[in-house]
């Protein structure tokens, strides 16, 4: 993922002589998902947890204008987005009426969230539409009775937004609102005894950005 970021950023700077404008900025974003679902299957027993999920995070971005018609950019979250820790208490032997119980915990973190996007102005009044695709690494942690671990998996998403940009002194400010959808992530434990599935599905997002043109 880091190689992708370096390659795209280098490409934008290398092409800057042929492009009309380079913009760099910071964004603050909030995303809400209705009915985000996590499922674990162990020895034929399926445990599912569904809840509304809200995430807030910041990012940095760089974009370049192409022939004054549209812009291409990359948005990167420079830290891990930490998810909540979920506990699950169940019988030691799920297929036997055993009094022995144990508690397992799960936490899902999103790392190196990177979005490549295109921004297209709608007229000359500052309104624009933005569409992009994101990639990130999902890290599944926690404490499990079996001692099993899950490998990191890739999370892929699609995003579309409607926004407005306005110049303020030497800076520009943007506000946008849109829709996001992520693919379901599935992972098998290293011992092959359990399987984990996480589904963010779709949700809405809002973003405020501040940047400078060069």
Describe this structure in words.
- This protein is mainly beta and 214 residues long.
- Helices cover 6% and strands 70% of the residues.
- The protein has an eight-stranded antiparallel β-barrel with strand order 1-2-3-5-6-7-8-11.
Brief summary of the model shown:
By secondary structure, this protein is mainly β. The protein contains one helix and eleven strands.
Secondary structure layout plus pairing:
Elements: H1 2-14, E1 21-42, E2 45-66, E3 70-76, E4 81-91, E5 101-121, E6 127-143, E7 153-168, E8 171-182, E9 185-188, E10 194-199, E11 202-213
Antiparallel strand pairs: 1-2, 1-10, 1-11, 2-3, 3-5, 4-5, 5-6, 6-7, 7-8, 8-11, 9-10
Structural class: mainly beta
Content of β-strand: over 45%
Secondary-structure element string: HEEEEEEEEEEE
Overall mean confidence score, pLDDT: 79
Measured as a percent range, the helix fraction is under 10%
Count of strand segments: 11
């Amino acid at each position: 993922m880091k190689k992708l970021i370096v390659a795209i950023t280098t490409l934008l700077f290398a092409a800057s002589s042929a492009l009309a404008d380079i913009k760099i900025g910071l964004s603050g974003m909030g995303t809400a998902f209705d009915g985000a679902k996590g499922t674990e299957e162990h020895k034929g027993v399926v445990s599912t947890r569904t809840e509304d999920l809200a995430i807030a995070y910041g990012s940095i971005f760089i974009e370049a204008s192409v022939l004054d018609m549209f812009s291409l950019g990359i948005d990167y979250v420079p830290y891990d987005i930490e998810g909540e820790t979920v506990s699950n208490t169940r019988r030691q032997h799920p297929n036997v009426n055993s009094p022995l119980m144990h508690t397992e915990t799960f936490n899902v973190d999103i790392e190196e969230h990177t979005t490549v996007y295109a921004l297209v102005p709608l007229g000359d009044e500052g309104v624009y539409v933005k569409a992009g695709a994101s990639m990130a690494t999902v890290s599944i942690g926690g404490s499990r009775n079996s001692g099993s671990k899950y490998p990191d998996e890739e999370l892929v998403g699609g995003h579309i937004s409607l926004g407005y940009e306005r110049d303020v002194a030497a800076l520009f400010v943007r506000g946008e609102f849109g829709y996001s959808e992520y693919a379901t992530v599935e992972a098998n434990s290293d011992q092959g005894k359990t399987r984990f599935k996480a589904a963010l599905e779709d949700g809405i997002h809002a973003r405020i950005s501040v940047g400078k043109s060069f």
